[in-house]
Write a structure and sequence with these properties.
This protein is an all-alpha fold. It has one domain: Orthogonal Bundle (MetI-like fold), CATH 1.10.3720. Helices cover about 75% and strands about 0% of the residues. Helix 4 packs across helix 5, helix 6 crosses helix 7 and helix 10 packs antiparallel against helix 12. The longest helix has about 35 residues. It starts with a helix and ends in an 8-residue tail after the last helix. Keywords: Cell membrane, Membrane, Transmembrane, Transmembrane helix, Transport. One of its GO terms (biological process) is transmembrane transport. It comes from Polaromonas naphthalenivorans (strain CJ2). Belongs to the binding-protein-dependent transport system permease family.
């Protein structure tokens, strides 16, 4: 069993858990209970309300931000960074994962370097990136592309290696060229694992987007900068609103990816 199996299995299990399209109201039980407890402990002043602010204060801060046009500009910039970095990382990840998966030589030449590099924490690359290309858009997009690259490579690699070699041999007997074997047999058969890797890559890219905006601050624009500005001003309401906005946008991304994954796999037979 490859060491990539847990990663891909986690992605597939996550996709399976979202198989129902209907909204399940039970998912609101915990947030509502949390808000009730939060309101109670602040209303009764059981905590320091300068640090644990009341929910009403966060709601008021949120309405103030929503009425400000710069909030929507920040979301737009964050989405642009996220999707740009994810696209670059995903395309490179599929190419590298497929190459390592189908070529024994590439596995021996590229594999050790890749598996060593992926042990390095993503945030450890930030000082080098900022030194080489500064703290502008380019460094943010490169960082985000790194975050998407690794899970996509692992998913693609697992999917390609899982394709039955007997099927490939039968295809060659029928006169398929190597390109036809790859695009008409290997790539479709590996698509569930590739899509699982893409979905994980999308999640990691969003986390990296927020991290890049928080740690590579230059123009102050982006949803991650909301938390940074709240920290600098010691505005706990703004910090909590920023965290809520980040979580909601990330959840929307995850749901969109789950729906896209299900629809893209409808054509596929149950067994490979």
């Amino acid at each position: 069993m490859s060491d990539t199996a847990p990663l891909v299995s986690a992605g597939i299990s996550s996709a399976t858990s979202d198989s129902k399209t209907a909204f399940d109201w039970r998912g609101l039980v915990l947030p509502i209970a949390f808000v009730i407890v939060w309101y109670a402990v602040t209303a009764l002043e059981l905590v320091n309300t300068k640090l644990i602010v009341p929910p009403a204060g966060v709601a008021a801060q949120g309405l103030k931000e929503l009425a400000n046009g710069s909030f929507y500009l920040g979301i737009g910039l964050s989405l642009w960074r996220d999707l740009s970095g994810f696209t670059l990382g995903a395309l490179a990840g599929i190419a590298v994962g497929a190459l390592i998966g189908v070529s024994h030589l590439a596995d021996k030449v590229i594999g050790p370097t890749f598996h060593t590099a992926r042990q390095i924490s993503l945030f450890a690359w930030l000082p080098l990136l900022s030194a080489l290309v500064g703290t502008g858009e380019l460094s943010k997009i490169i960082f985000i592309s790194f975050s998407a690259f690794y899970p996509v490579v692992l998913g693609t690699l697992e999917g390609v290696r899982g394709v039955s070699r007997a099927h490939a041999e039968v295809a060659r007997v029928y006169g398929f060229t190597p390109a036809q074997v790859f695009f008409r047999l290997i790539l479709p058969a590996a698509s569930p694992e590739i899509l699982a890797g893409l979905r994980l890559g999308l999640i990691y890219a969003w986390l990296a987007t927020i991290g890049a905006e928080y740690l590579l601050v230059n123009d102050g624009q982006g949803i991650g900068n909301i938390v940074f500005k709240g920290r600098m001003a010691f505005n706990v309401e703004l910090i909590l609103f920023g965290l809520l906005a980040i979580g909601l946008v990330g959840n929307v991304f995850n749901r969109i990816a789950a729906v896209a994954e299900r629809r893209l796999l409808r054509w596929r037979a149950p067994a490979r």
